[in-house]
Amino acid sequence: MIKTLGKLKKVDLRTIWEHEALSFTKWLAKEDNLAALSEELGISIKLLKTEADVGGFNVDILAEEEDSERKIIIENQLEVTDHDHLGKLLTYASGVDASVIIWIFKEIREEHRRAIDWLNEHTDDSIDFFAVKMELWQISESLPAPKFQIISNPNNWAKVVKTKTEESRLTDTKLYQLDLWNNFKTYASDHQIKLNLTKTGPQHWYSFSVGSSICHLALTVNTRSKELGCELYISDDKELFDFLFSKKNEIEKDLNLKLEWMRLPDDTKASRIKTAKKFEIIGSKNFAKYQEAFEWMQSNLENFKKTFSKYLSAYQ
């Protein structure tokens, strides 16, 4: 028996968002929608301000990357791209010293796509440009559903060569951390991990989106204690921590784990909920022997996302 399927239909953006600033920017700035964009781009976007003043101009959305606090600007254009908006992107980026520049549009001209590609190829690893096509789709008479389609994004492989001289100045520990996350990223990609894999760095943590701009997941490594950790990192929301702590028994039952609940003092913004495990292999660069550690990392990340996403939805 052949089942009847619905027809996929593209919806004109202007039927939903009549005005870029008054309609679309306000929609995108909502936490769930920024989280969806974060998930697609593989970065954690935390809203700072809409229509933020930059000299005599206003950037549509000013945000920051939650785990690194890199400044993010988002410029929206519900039409075909033009030189005016490309110029605005660069002006705003320089005005706020942004490290992540996102251009969202209805359609992109080929010369503008090449321009974004060129910027990604000719800037160092600290600057990322994204060109994102905004689409709306519906099945038969369903509600329109938004879709972010990445047209151009940073080519980290091309930028690696430019950062080799910087890496040569890193300590052995920092180089190990970078190698660890890069090797785990390759493992996770090969094993189809159910999270977006973000850019790695020479630091003791590696962050992942959990579908919310107020917190994220992170793997951590401590080479002295030979310990790996997996945690939910809440940057600045004690009420969220308290809500989750009130569900402590249910959460630990769902995860089948005893967790470490770290509210931290009130004068410290962040809070953490984590699990950790010792692996004697930690510190060794023989990553071919990291199978058990990588399995532990992937399993806990996926379970944390599945479990905490449910409670985050209830909180929000």
TrEMBL record:
Gene3D superfamilies: 3.40.1350.10. Residues 177-312 form the DUF4268 domain. One of its GO terms (molecular function) is nucleic acid binding. It holds the Pfam family DUF4268. This is DUF4268 domain-containing protein. It comes from Candidatus Danuiimicrobium aquiferis.
